[in-house]
Design goal:
The complex is a heterodimer of chains A (about 350) and B (about 425). Chain A is an alpha/beta fold and about 350 residues long. Chain A has 2 domains: about 180 residues, Periplasmic binding protein-like II (D-Maltodextrin-Binding Protein, domain 2, 3-Layer(aba) Sandwich), CATH 3.40.190; about 150 residues, D-Maltodextrin-Binding Protein, domain 2 (3-Layer(aba) Sandwich). Chain A has 14 helices and 10 strands. In chain A, strands 1, 2, 3, 4, 5, 6, 7, 8, 9 and 10 form a 10-stranded mixed beta sheet that branches. In chain A, helix 7 packs across helix 9. By secondary structure, chain B is mainly alpha-helical. Chain B is built from 19 helices and 2 strands. Chain B is extended, with a radius of gyration of 32 Å. The mean pLDDT of chain B is about 90. Classes of the chains: A alpha/beta (about 350), B mainly alpha (about 425).
């Protein structure tokens, strides 16, 4: 009996090994690419993933995630890499890169733009700032109102977001300190260029939380950008924060009477990165080189996200041009990825403490 | 007849052996039957949880990245700056890390110990990395101290020393809103959050358990008093939501509770309200949605226990002259206690660790400790602290279970 026990154990192990081997074989000529889903994911599928599959014959498994580094950290630590290429918010990117969760990327594998401009000059500098990723879009956190529910006084500046006397009603923000504290300081009169400097000091942090506290009873919190247009549509809030592309998609596809306010917007990049230790690094780099080419990037303005290559703009749908963050850079600030790498955890705790009080 | 006696004797020995073999075989067969489950539980449940719990006390990263500095810091008295030799060792190790492109990991680790150090470590590592190895002995320490004023602060070095301990209880201190200070010993942290969240989580779980009991008890009583076929039909109505996806039920509550949702528009249209009520994104929403979701866990054990109670006991009490209410309280209720405790324990334990519903409908004041554990797992990436918070929660539940066992008795729990 003892013999048959070992037999069955080894049979089990063998089956498991066979199963894994066959998974491995099936996955050999495919690539797992992970991004944010929604309208953005659909645009990437149309302009990047599908053409890439057609041109190269490589099967791409295109999956969604909700940001953060937890899954990638778990995969790298266990050595069981499931994802190959990931679309990162630059705020997360800095930490993932320094923790050694991402492959370092050279710069010489990027093709020149369609107009022949070398990649180094074609990309905006921020897109090539990280050694672990290649920036692909510029997006922005803005707020919007609904033409139907706003009333006669309409918001124009970030100050109005915090002025409940001028515009009464609920405001919806994503439940995290990022962007919210920047907005609070800007609304409190801190010049945009000095926001992160002020926010690095304990007094500045207090000032930001105090400003947020002044509208706390009118704040509604959500966890994912996708909840935001819904809140604006059903009247859950009068002023709602979200990624500009989410609003643009509701306006364009669903003909919602939303109006975006660009004052004080906080813009950031998304970037393609490769998970450390993937056996398909070469294929992954081939994908990134393709995905950040002039033509695929020219499809991103479909969802109001700005391409990071200058040569993409002439190829893009020009109706979206005035709705891109790149058309409003003077009204906003760049999200401080280094600041949030430094203070993200401490301010995250402080923010949650503040929520409880 | 001696021959027969010998035969009998030898037979019994053989028989005994056979019987023992048969028993062993049976046990082994039984083991083989449960082996897949056992392996599955070990691999998918016990091992990950054990490794997570282990993480909360075992943290070797810093001492692996800068082993010599940590050793040097052992002789430092925790006041003022470490001596020149220790600083030189650190400058050397940071230089080596910068050359190996490993300084980012150290930056992340030290940032956790002292907020704001991430960029300091990275920029200092860049500046040190530019030095030639032979310059290090002379220029290393001045370059380091010049790179950022934080390197001249004893709090920073104290934080590095604490972070360098391979075995540490510091994460548990943080999880209890405490910290260590070189002079004052253990003292409260600036940010007070986790204790508040624990007590809030327990309060919410208690309220939900009470509500489930209040709603579930009469329902189960009614179901138990019905004839079997009708009771089964009605039980399907209890089970249907139980089979429906958790996410669907939570989203349904969003549709009901939101500002212009079903409830508010009905109340407004009927003229009972002038202004919509704020119900979504409050702890009220968390309590309502979770009570609804967890109700079957209360009804099912209660119902099956009540089904087993012979109604003649109550009739006997009444016919002996007891009034209905005292008879119910003294005769019927004590017999339902096993089911009630099982239901209460199930609902309480599940709601303490609940995550999705409070995250979706809870807003600010409906948050529970699980949401903060998720924050440390997913966004701050501080898995050690998440592990400490999680194991404290586990310890808390075990403690409550122990108290419960003392006063009610775990053997009293009955699921049917």
């Amino acid at each position: 009996m003892a013999r048959s026990l070992t037999t069955s154990v080894s049979a089990f192990a063998l089956t498991a090994a066979l199963a894994m081997a066959s998974f491995g074989a099936a996955a050999q000529d495919s690539l797992t690419v992970v991004s944010w889903g929604g309208a953005y994911g659909a645009a990437q599928k149309k302009h990047v993933v599908d053409p890439f599959q057609k041109d190269t014959g490589v099967k791409v498994l295109f999956e969604d995630y909700t940001g953060g580094v937890a899954e990638i950290k778990a995969q790298v630590e266990s050595g069981n890499i499931q994802w190959d290429v990931v679309d990162f918010e630059v705020i997360d990117l800095e930490r993932a890169c320094s923790e050694g969760l991402l492959e370092e990327l050279p710069r010489d594998f990027l093709p020149a733009g369609v107009d022949g401009t070398p990649a180094e000059q074609d990309f905006i500098p921020e897109a090539l700032a990280s050694e672990c990723a290649i920036g692909n879009i510029v997006w922005s956190v803005v707020f919007a109102y609904n033409e139907r529910t706003i009333g006669s006084v309409k918001p124009e500046t970030i100050k109005d977001f915090f002025d409940t006397a001028k515009i009464p009603g609920k405001r919806a923000m994503r439940k995290r300190p990022q962007v919210n504290l920047e907005w609070a300081l800007m609304a409190d009169g801190v010049p945009p260029a000095e926001v992160y400097e002020v926010l690095a000091t304990p007094e500045g942090q207090q000032r930001a939380f105090d400003k947020l506290a002044s509208i706390k009873k009118d704040l509604v919190w959500f966890d994912s950008w996708s909840q935001a247009p819904q809140l604006l549509n059903d009247g859950g809030a009068v002023l709602v924060q979200s990624a500009n592309g989410r609003f643009y998609d509701s306006i364009r596809q669903e003909k919602k009477p939303f109006v975006i306010v660009w004052d004080g917007h906080v813009y950031d990049l998304d970037a393609w990165a490769i998970v450390k230790g993937t056996p398909k690094k070469d294929l992954a780099m081939q994908f990134i080189a393709y995905a950040t080419g002039s033509k695929p990037l020219a499809g991103m303005p479909d969802v109001a996200y700005g391409p990071t290559r200058k040569s993409s703009m002439p190829l893009a749908d020009q109706t979206a041009a005035p709705h891109l963050p790149t058309a409003h850079l003077d009204k906003g600030i760049k999200a401080g990825s280094e600041f949030w790498a430094d203070h993200g955890e401490a301010l995250g705790e402080k923010f949650n403490e503040w929520l409880l009080n | 007849m001696p021959a027969r006696g010998a035969l009998l004797h030898s037979l019994t020995a053989q028989e005994a052996g056979q019987a023992a073999r048969a028993r062993r075989r049976k046990r082994l067969t039984a083991l083989l039957f449960v082996l897949p489950l056992l392996l599955f539980i070990l691999l998918a449940f016990v091992a990950p949880i054990a490794s997570m719990l282990w993480r909360s006390v075992h943290h070797p990263t810093v001492s692996e990245l800068i082993p010599r500095t940590i050793a040097e810091l052992q002789r430092w008295d925790e006041h003022g700056l470490p001596d020149e030799a220790s600083l030189a060792v650190f400058a050397e190790e940071l230089h080596a890390l910068a050359r190996k492109r490993q300084s980012g990991r150290l930056a992340e680790e030290l940032n956790r110990a002292f907020s704001g150090m991430s960029s300091v470590v990275k920029s200092s590592a860049r500046q040190l990395g530019r030095l030639q190895p032979e310059q290090l002995a002379t220029d290393g320490v001045p370059t380091l101290l010049k790179a950022h004023r934080n390197w001249s602060r004893s709090e920073v070095w104290y934080a590095i020393k604490r972070a360098g301990m391979t075995y540490t209880y510091d994460y548990y201190l943080t999880a209890l809103d405490l910290e260590r200070h070189p002079d004052e010993g253990i003292r409260p942290r600036d940010t007070q959050i986790y204790l508040k969240l624990y007590s809030k989580t327990l309060t919410l779980a208690l309220i939900i358990t009470l509500l489930c009991a209040l709603l579930g008890y009469p329902l189960s009583y009614y179901l138990a008093s019905l004839p079997e076929n009708r009771a089964n039909l009605l039980l399907v109505l209890v089970l249907l939501p139980f089979w429906t996806s958790l996410l669907v039920r939570t989203t349904a509550w969003i549709a009901l509770l939101q500002t212009n949702g079903v409830i508010n528009s009905t109340l407004l249209a009927s003229g009972l309200l002038d202004e919509p009520l704020e119900m979504l994104y409050t702890s009220f929403a968390t309590v309502v949605a979770m009570t609804h979701i967890l109700l079957p866990f209360m009804v099912l054990p209660l119902y099956s226990v009540m089904r087993g109670i012979d109604p003649s006991y109550l009739r006997a009490a009444l016919s002996l002259g007891d009034r209905p209410l005292p008879a119910f309280a003294r005769i019927y209720f004590p017999m339902t206690l096993p089911g009630l405790s099982a239901g209460a324990l199930l609902v309480f334990i599940i709601s303490v660790g609940y995550y999705i519903t409070p995250a979706l409908v809870g807003g600010t004041d409906g948050q529970m400790i699980s949401n903060l554990i998720a924050f440390h797992m997913q966004s701050s990436n501080n898995w050690e602290l998440a592990a400490a918070l999680g194991s404290l929660l586990l310890a808390l539940i075990l403690l409550l279970y122990w108290v419960y066992d003392r006063f009610v008795g775990a053997s009293n729990i009955k699921l049917g």
